[in-house]
């Protein structure tokens, strides 16, 4: 085995005389016929302009009702006067209008079934494109077994997600996807739902955080070494109530937190002695009183940032706020920025810089800066 030197290969590889004289040639047609066929499908379909059904209405339910009234007008025009419908839309008409809108969108986004990147797509008896799932043998709702296909970059799909998001009490992304999956199959569902939920104003109010600052250093009297009771002080603990002065019939003092959190008190002393009409009058008076206090609170406690007050280390922890009739100083933890729309034709100054458009304003504002706009200062 060692003498044969098998690892060097056969002998004809060493002599070039045994090699073929001709060069290998191949037919291009045969090569092309044997290459692997591949098809590229572009699924990033989107609408270039706002469709006619979404010009005047931004709510999905309103858009469906608009289509329902159009279909009723068409049907009434084709029938006699005795058979025409004149009352409110029925549930059957609303469902038919919804399917007509879906067919319009599907016909624009998916001209044929071959343009759909899913192989299990088909059309039902009403011409709606659906997706065939693995649950065909299950006894369930037909919309759940074969959901309706909808594109991702479509105004109707966005309005549909917004409608279900508000209907189910501002549900999150995962819950909203599960609810929509019972009837619809949206391409790029998670990304589409996340983009809609991200722009919800109510949800952004709950996830927003108040500005924070670095902790301030303790004063020298509290950190130096001293004997017991050499340094004393009083902490701000609020009003003090004595035991003899407490009365269960006293009214609860109004605080800013009652208006910010919307807390209500139902302590009506003369409830058992009043009649029903008086009780209704009392409720209306109480509702009007709360609205008056709420409007007064917004006028008197909403202010504008006037000056940042830096500490000894140069970091800002307190602010001077301009109220309706005076100026107050509040810590930055007690100040909450509110979003105020800025028109493009107004000249607004941010830290002494004039901005004539909203794009310039966005370039000035950063994440850690305090926005010079209307602020809420909570007074304890």
Automatic annotation (TrEMBL):
Gene3D superfamilies: 1.10.340.70. InterPro entries: Integrase_H2C2. Residues 156-206 form the Integrase zinc-binding domain. It holds the Pfam family Integrase_H2C2. This is Integrase catalytic domain-containing protein. It comes from Trichonephila inaurata madagascariensis. The gene is AVEN_136580_1.
């Amino acid at each position: 085995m060692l003498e044969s030197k098998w690892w060097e290969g056969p002998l004809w590889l060493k002599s070039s005389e045994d090699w073929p004289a001709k060069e290998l040639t191949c037919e291009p047609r045969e090569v092309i016929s044997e290459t692997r066929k591949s098809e590229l499908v572009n699924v990033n379909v989107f609408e270039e302009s706002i469709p006619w059904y979404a010009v005047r209405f931004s709510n999905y339910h309103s858009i469906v009702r608009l289509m329902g009234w159009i279909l009723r007008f068409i049907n009434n025009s084709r029938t006699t006067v005795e058979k025409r419908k004149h009352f409110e839309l029925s549930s059957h008409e609303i469902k038919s209008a919804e399917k007509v809108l879906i067919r319009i969108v599907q016909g624009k986004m998916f001209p044929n079934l071959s343009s759909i990147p899913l192989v299990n797509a088909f059309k039902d008896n009403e011409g709606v494109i659906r997706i065939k799932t693995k649950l065909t043998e299950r006894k369930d709702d037909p919309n759940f077994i074969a959901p309706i296909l909808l594109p991702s970059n479509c105004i109707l799909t966005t309005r549909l997600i917004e409608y279900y998001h508000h209907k189910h009490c501002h549900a999150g992304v995962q819950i909203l996807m599960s609810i929509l999956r019972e009837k619809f199959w949206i391409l790029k569902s998670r990304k589409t739902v996340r983009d809609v939920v991200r722009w919800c104003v109510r949800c952004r109010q709950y996830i927003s955080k108040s500005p924070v600052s670095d902790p301030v250093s303790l004063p020298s009297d509290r950190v130096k070494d001293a004997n017991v009771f050499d340094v004393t002080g009083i902490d701000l603990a609020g009003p003090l109530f004595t035991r003899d002065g407490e009365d269960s019939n006293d009214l609860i003092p109004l605080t800013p937190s009652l208006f910010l959190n919307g807390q209500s008190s139902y302590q009506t002393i003369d409830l058992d002695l009043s009649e029903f009409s008086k009780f209704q009058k009392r409720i209306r008076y109480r509702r009007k009183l709360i609205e008056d206090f709420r409007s007064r609170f917004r006028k008197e406690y909403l202010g504008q940032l006037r000056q940042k007050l830096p500490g000894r280390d140069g970091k800002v922890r307190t602010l001077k706020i301009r109220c309706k009739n005076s100026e107050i100083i509040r810590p930055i933890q007690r100040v909450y920025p509110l979003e105020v729309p800025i028109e493009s034709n107004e000249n607004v100054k941010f830290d002494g810089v004039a901005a004539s458009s909203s794009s310039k304003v966005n370039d000035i504002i950063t994440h850690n800066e305090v926005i010079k706009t209307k602020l809420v200062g909570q007074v304890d």
